[in-house]
Amino acid sequence: EDAVIIVGAGIAGLSAAASLHKVGVRAVVLEREGGPREEGSAITFWPNAFRVLDALGVAAPVRESHPLVRSFGLDECEGSPHDARIVRRNSLLAALRTAVPDGATHYGVTIADVHATETGAEVELATGERLRCKAVVGADGVKSRIAAKLGLKPATYAGEVYYRGVATFPEGVPEPPGTLRMIWSQRGVRVGISTISATECFWFTTLACPEQAKMETPEKRQARSLLQLAKARSQPDAIRHTPADNISRSRIVDRWLKNGTILGQGCITVAGDALHPMTPSLGQGGCIALEVGTPAPFCLASPNREGY
């Protein structure tokens, strides 16, 4: 009953747990998947995200394994070189897990419901077990059960799907390390290609698609991606060096919240994609998930709040 329960062991959930631990508040992370998340390809991390990783003490391994982005015109901006890197998602999550105490994350746990109580909150598991706690942070993704409980409207489909993957070039990537290339074609195609390391390259492309489009086989995803790069007159080698099974497809969604929208109920709130799903246009989804996960612990640790 003296802990904060965090639902979801993704970027927002782990950063919130690490931040709570840093200020002396016990956190318990409940994750639906059976083990640490290894899915996902790569994400763009800008200086605001690295400031959070620095505060959590886990920035060093992420910086060491991912080169600075230098050929996107960033060095022409005041204050260069900027701490911007293309980061493997699994490397980021592994770094965040090191900042969370051993035994604090429990896998294979499904949440059925949450309730506010006079002293905090109560989490009901799918097994029927009930866990009382001081507060709940829902970091359970775009289709968040906790966001729905709080009355937040479902995320809005943006009319596009997002194909992405990480290509491996054993002989060396075709672009110099630290390169980020974005292409916006006259046909409405968006393509991004960036180097992660001397042998790895992250790429993505988007496709306008009806909301109810059927799921595709890995081979179909690969063919679709090649077609999009051809339309943009871009280099298709990255896709050819990505196994079809490693190409992911996701619907692009976002949620615009009006000023004054209530984001909590008692001691229950949400963070990350559960709160602010966004399109990849600015490359800030992962960065903001980190930033949103860090202020709450300092509020919970305030000496003005009884019990902390």
Automatic annotation (TrEMBL):
Keywords on record: Monooxygenase, Oxidoreductase
Occurrences of domain FAD-binding (ranges): 3-286
SUPFAM superfamilies in alphabetical order: FAD/NAD(P)-binding domain
Similarity comment: family membership: Belongs to the 3-hydroxybenzoate 6-hydroxylase family.
Species lineage: Eukaryota, Viridiplantae, Chlorophyta, core chlorophytes, Trebouxiophyceae
Gene Ontology MF term list: FAD binding; monooxygenase activity
InterPro entries: FAD-bd (IPR002938), FAD/NAD-bd_sf (IPR036188), MOase (IPR044560)
Name this polypeptide is given: FAD/NAD(P)-binding domain-containing protein
